[in-house]
Write a structure and sequence with these properties.
about 250 residues, Jelly Rolls, about 20% helix, globular, 2OG-Fe dioxygenase family protein, 2OG-Fe_dioxygenase, dioxygenase activity
Length: about 250
């Protein structure tokens, strides 16, 4: 396969970065995301996406829900290195997650082969590039602390799926990437972006595989509307990959 043109890739990156600087978020359409990930070495999307079939139930939901499945991993990212860290809990203060914050949450680790997968490496390389370019040089860390989450939100006849059960929120990090992996038999799931005063400044629905959003977590809130099955007699789910970056 021919590697995407470097000049074209730079132009796409520049467009994403300019929009993010101006609006504090960017919706990256499938075509652009696909080209960028290929540039960073993506191959074998199918086996990567299939790993969402092997996620465990999130047992930490304070609302008692059993509609969310997930795996989790952490990485150290630098210009020339992607290093997986020892498995550790996910923690958010209640300042950022009023529903599930304030406790260490130990999720199943992302499978070793998925953590090393060409798609994962491409995503982490891209996020590292965007975050570094958009962070003032004097504030750039030597390494970014990256948390990676595989999420599956399920819905059924009598079960609404909540992609963001904590509501409109910030994650308490520097940068957030959300990438669609698969939507199956799902209605709604619209992402909205709000400024720090709560006014909506954008909305979109991630639909096809690799449809993505990149967010400056310091400057905007984000949330996703609940999902329902289109056909209640068939499985319904929304699979996404979420990557957050913060200073070490």
């Amino acid at each position: 396969m021919t590697k995407p043109d470097a000049d074209l890739t730079k132009a796409v990156l520049k467009g994403i970065e300019t929009t993010t600087q101006e609006k504090f978020f960017t919706h990256i359409p499938v075509e652009q995301m696909h080209a960028l990930l290929e540039y960073y070495g993506m191959t074998d999307w199918e086996s990567f996406a299939a790993s969402w079939q092997r996620l465990g139930v999130d047992v930490y939901m304070a609302d008692g829900g059993r509609y969310r499945r997930r795996r989790h991993a952490t990485f150290a990212l630098s210009e020339n290195s992607i290093l997986r860290k020892k498995h550790q809990p996910h923690y958010q203060s209640r300042d950022y997650n009023t529903l599930n914050g304030g406790v260490e949450r130990w999720f199943d680790p992302i499978e070793k082969r998925i953590g090393e997968h060409p798609v994962m490496k491409a995503v982490l390389s891209l996020v590292n590039r965007l975050a570094t370019d958009l962070t003032p040089e004097t504030e750039q860390p030597e390494t970014w602390h990256a948390e990676v989450h595989q999420f599956r939100i399920e819905a059924a006849r009598e079960m609404i799926g909540q992609p963001t059960p904590e509501g409109l929120h910030r994650d308490g990090v520097d940068w957030v990437l959300v990438m669609m992996v698969q939507r199956e038999n799902v209605a709604n799931g619209t992402t909205s972006i709000h400024d720090l005063q709560g006014a909506e400044v954008g909305s979109f629905t991630l639909t096809g595989p690799m449809d993505a959003a990149f967010v400056n977590d310091h400057m905007v809130y984000h949330g996703v509307t609940p999902i329902q099955p289109i056909d209640p007699d068939r499985p319904a789910f929304r699979d996404v990959l979420v990557v957050t970056l913060r200073h070490q």
